[in-house]
Amino acid sequence: MTHPTSPTPARTHLDNGGSAPLHPSARQAFVQALDEGWADPRRLHAEGRRAAALLDGAREAVAGVLGTRTEEVRFTPSHTASLHAAMAQVARARRRHGGDVVVGAVERAAVLHAADHVAATGQGRRTTVPVDRVGRVDADELASAALADGVALAALQDANGEVGTRQPVARVHAALEGSGVPLLVDAGASVGHAPLPTAWDLLAADPADWGGPRGLGILAVRHRTRTVPAGPEDPDPWAPGGVSVPAAFAAAVSLQAVAQDLAAEDERRRALVDRIRDGVAGVPDVEVVGDPQDRLPHVVTFSFLYVDGEALVTELDRAGYAVGSGSACTAGTLEPSHVLAAMGVLTHGNVRLALDRSTTAEDVERFLAVLPGAVARVRDALGVSGL
Amino acid sequence: MSAGPEVVDARGLRCPLPVVRLAAHAKERPRGTEITVLATDPAARYDVPAWARLRGHAMVAEEQHPGNDETDGRTWWALTVRLED
Predict the structure, then answer these.
(1) How far is B42 from chain A (nearest CA, A)?
(2) A274 is in which domain, residue-wise?
(3) One domain for residues A279 and A239
(4) Which domains does chain B show, CATH number per domain?
(5) Which entry of A83, A95, A267, B9 is 20 to 30 Å from A294 by CA?
(6) Which residues contact A163 (CB under 8 A, 6 or more apart)?
C-alpha cells in the first residue's frame, strides 16, 4: 500500500524568548550529569558526594559568569519560582519597614502577580510605575516611589522580553543605595544575550531563555540582602526538595558557552533585527515597537493595523514559522499583553520575534518573504483594504 | 449641525473588529467629525487611542460602563475620537 508523501515542511522557530532550543553544550552537559550526578546530592555516600560536587561546580561556574560569589547563587525550580520566592522572602525580611512593593508597569506577569501577593500578605499595596511609548520606566519616578515610606522592595527588569527595551536599572539601583530598599532585577530576557547587569540586590536569570534546560531557575542574592524563608520548612527554602543536578550542571555549562560568544552574537543578531525592522516597515500600516537602539540584540516586535493576531500567528505557523504574539486571543485570554497596553501601542495584529543563536540570515530572509503575503491574506479575510 | 458624536456600536465584536468598524465609519467623514465606538472587547480601549495616534486623529473621551443585559453582563467602553486628518 502506498500513501502519497508530502515532504514535512521545514520549521523555523522565531519564538525563542523563554524557550530557546537546547544549546549543544547544554545537551552534552545534561547527558554527562545524568551518568555522574543522578544521586541525591544531600546524601553522604560516594554517589551522593559526586552529585553534590557537580552541583557545587555548577554554582561556582554560574557565580563566575555572573561576577558574584558562589554562596550568593541559588538554584530554583524555574524562573517564575525564582521571582516568586525572591519577592516573598525579601518582603518577609522587610516586614517591619512596610508591605508596599514598587514595580515597573512592563515587568513580566510573574513579578506583577508576586508583587500583588506579597503586598496583600503584608497589608501593603503595589505601586506600578508607568512606561513611555517605547516601554521604558523613568528612573527618577521609580526611585522616588521606592524611597517612599513603607516600601518593602522594588523590582525592575534589566530589559523587556516582549519588546526588547532596556531599563535604567543602574540609575535606579544607585538612587536606592543606602536606603535599605532592595532592588530585584529580572534579567530573564537579557542574561545570555546582553552584557550582565552589575547593579542589583537580587538577580534572576532564566536558563531556558539562552538554550539551557527547562525546570531550573537561577537567583543570585547579595549577601547583605536579608531574606526570610516564606514557605514550609525545608533544607533548601529556595527550592524545596532540591533541584535537578543535571539541569543545574547543564545550565551552568551553557551559560559559560553563551558568555563566550556574547559579543559576536550581539553584533550578528542586532544586524538581523535591523534587517527585520527594515523589511517589516515595507508592509503597509505597521508599527514596530520598543526602543530602536537601546534594546536587546535579538528581540523585535511589531503590530499590524487591522490584523487579527491569532489569525496571523496561525497563518505564519502554516507557512512554517513559529512566532509569538502579545495580541489578545493568542494567549487564550481576552486581555492583550499588559506590556503593549502600558506602552499605548497597537495591541492587535502583534508579532513578537526572539532570535536564537541558531537563527540564520537565510531564516530571516525567508520569513520576510512570506510575511507580507500572510498579512495581506489575514486582512483580506476581514475585508479591510482601503481603510 | 451636530447632535453629538456619531456612534459605532462594536459591542460583542473581538479585536481588531472594533477598530475596523471605526475606520470604515471614519472613511469619507469630514474633518472634525466626532465618532464614539462602543466596545466590550478590552483591547479596544488601547487600540482605539493607538489607531487615532497612527492616523493623526484626536482622542476626546473614554468612559467605562458596567455590564448590562445588552452586553451579557460584560463591562463595555465608550471611546470617542475626533477626525483631524
Answers:
(1) 6
(2) 262-382
(3) no
(4) 6-67 (3.30.110.40)
(5) A83
(6) A106, A134, A135, A289, A290, A291, A295, A299, A301, A339, A340, A343, A352
Q: Which of A134, A313, A340, A348 to mutate to test the interface with B (most CBs of B within 10 A)?
A: A348
Q: Which residues of B are catalytic?
A: 15
Domain-terminating residue out of A260, A276, A311: A260
* Coil, helix or strand at residue B79: strand
Is residue A345 one of the residues assigned to a domain? yes
Q: Which of A335, A346, A384 sits opposite B47 (nearest CB)?
A: A346
Coil, helix or strand for A303?
Answer: strand
Q: What is chain B's alpha carbon radius of gyration, rounded to the nearest angstrom?
A: 12
If you measure CA to CA, which chain B residue comes closest to A384? B20
Q: Which of A219, A244, A260 is the last residue of a domain?
A: A260
For B74, the closest chain A residue by CA position comes to A334
- Could you report the per-residue pLDDT of A202-252, keeping only the tens digit for each? 999 999 999 999 999 999 999 999 999 998 999 999 999 999 999 999 999
Rounded to a whole number of angstroms, the distance from the CA of A278 to the nearest CA of chain B is 19
Secondary structure element (H or E) that encloses residue A9, with its range? none
- Tell me the per-residue pLDDT of A303-340, one tens digit each, with 9 for 90 and over: 999 999 999 999 999 999 999 999 986 656 678 999 99
- Counts for chain B of helices (H) and strands (E), in that order: 2, 4
